[in-house]
Amino acid sequence: SNIYCDGISGAVKYRFRVKLNGVIIDSLTRPNNKFRFTWINGEQYNTCYDLEVAWSSDAINYSIYGSLCNVCTPSIPTTRLGNSYCGMEIPSTLISMLDIYIAFTR
To answer: Rounded to an integer, what distance in angstroms lies between the CA atom of residue 1 and that of residue 37?
Structure first.
């Protein structure tokens, strides 16, 4: 999901700083005010991070960082078979194909 900071008129770059337990774990400079956790190193599920943002009008000098914002990533996702497969009897030819597919996807 995209996370946006407030846009600043005249800004040409935004620098997002990511902290975990008070320690800076990554910093990301962007040409716009959009951030995604998938862009940082070591993103983890079910974890709360502190984000702060600075901006630049010349891509060299940056403002001070704004206030911290606490953002949590979602829990580890789960999956299951589609409803059309539940309670279904599979023909024997599909079982061997399914066994092959499972063996190659592990």
So the answer is: 8
The rounded distance, in Å, linking the Cα atoms of 85 and 95 is 13
Both structure tokens of 48? 């709360």
Q: For 31-104, list the strands marked E by DSSP.
A: 34-35, 48-56, 69-72
pLDDT in tens, 17-50: 999 999 999 999 999 999 999 999 989 999 999 9
The pLDDT, as a whole number, for residue 71 is 96
48: which strand partners?
72
How does DSSP classify residue 33?
Answer: S
Q: Which amino acid is at 86?
A: C
Instruction: Classify residue 35 by burial, with Cβ atoms within 10 Å: 0-12, 13-18, 19+.
Output: buried
